Amino acid sequence: MGTANQGSPRMKTNFVPRVNQLDSIQLDHEITNLLRQQIQNVLQVLPPGLLSHLQPEINFVLNSALWNFSMRTSYATFGQQMLSITYEKDQLSPQKLAFHYFLTTVLPYAKESCQFRLTSWSRVQQLVQLVENGLVLFNLVNFFKFLRSGTRPSLVDCLLRINHRSLDGAKRRNIGYSYMTRELVWAGFMELLGFTIPFVNYHALKRKIRNMLRLETTHRQDERVELNAETRCAYCNERVILPHHMGCRHVFCYLCLKGNQLADAGFQCNVCDYRSDTFKKVLVL
């Protein structure tokens, strides 16, 4: 009985909530993505294509640096450190630490390098895809196992048989109810908008507002419709696709003109305000 009583406080002290373990994995991904984005911003200054062929090596150096300054020195990833979580130091022998580096850094580099450079080797690509699909399946099985046991959320943790430990003891996770209330209000507002917006004909509303604010109105100019290689759609300002017109000199894409006329019975040319139900194809002479 005495031994059991002594072991019980230790179990409570080492307990880590499931949500904290999952959040630490998500934080690690976010930190890696942020650093990769910063590196991409720096590489954009260089001439195009100068270091594009070294992308796997750049990611390998980044992941190695993150692993060195987190797992090697503190026995915890940066995401775990932000949530006051660490691995059991007694369970991470030098051999397991090296194997952790191999699984989390070397293997992803090998996979990315094969996919990046051996694109013509169909057998290798099929093998990599098969292994990746197998890992996805094992990750799914391990996730359900984690939900049941509450330990070892990642496949690497399961293979190395290492557990998390809380640095704050049995401290409970604080729940920000103000944040939850704000999210509920925002979700209700979005549902209201999603229900009401389809009933609003914003094409007609935009046309009426434009007509009210327009100080000068331009009338139809009896000029011939012109179509050349530089002609742009009067609505989307892009290269004209299937050119059509509504009676004025301005040219529209087929979908731009037809869609606006179907959505708004009083559609006017957004350049000269000419209003007509005409829908004609522009003939190239």
Automatic annotation (TrEMBL):
**Which stretch is the leader sequence?**
none
Record's bilayer topology term: Multi-pass membrane protein
In which pathway is this protein known to take part? Protein modification; protein ubiquitination
Compartments reported by the entry: Peroxisome membrane
Record-linked SUPFAM superfamilies: RING/U-box
EC class name: transferase
- Sorted alphabetically, which InterPro entries does this protein's record hold? PEX2/10, Pex_N, Znf_RING, Znf_RING/FYVE/PHD, Znf_RING_CS
User: Its catalytic activity?
Assistant: [E2 ubiquitin-conjugating enzyme]-S-ubiquitinyl-L-cysteine + [acceptor protein]-L-cysteine = [E2 ubiquitin-conjugating enzyme]-L-cysteine + [acceptor protein]-S-ubiquitinyl-L-cysteine
User: What Pfam family is a match for this entry?
Assistant: Pex2_Pex12
What are the GO cellular component annotations?
peroxisomal membrane
Keyword Translocase carried by entry: no
Q: Which UniProt keywords apply?
A: Membrane, Metal-binding, Peroxisome, Protein transport, Transferase, Transmembrane, Transmembrane helix, Transport, Ubl conjugation pathway, Zinc, Zinc-finger
A single GO BP term for this record reads: protein import into peroxisome matrix
Q: Which residues form the RING-type domain?
A: 233-273
Instruction: Supply the EC number(s).
Output: 2.3.2.36
**Molecular functions (GO terms):** ubiquitin protein ligase activity; zinc ion binding
**PANTHER family in the record:** PEROXISOME BIOGENESIS FACTOR 2 (PTHR48178:SF1)
* Family of this protein: Belongs to the pex2/pex10/pex12 family.
| Name of the protein described by the UniProt record | RING-type E3 ubiquitin transferase (cysteine targeting)
Origin species, per record, is Anopheles stephensi (Indo-Pakistan malaria mosquito)
Q: What is the lineage of its organism?
A: Eukaryota, Metazoa, Ecdysozoa, Arthropoda, Hexapoda
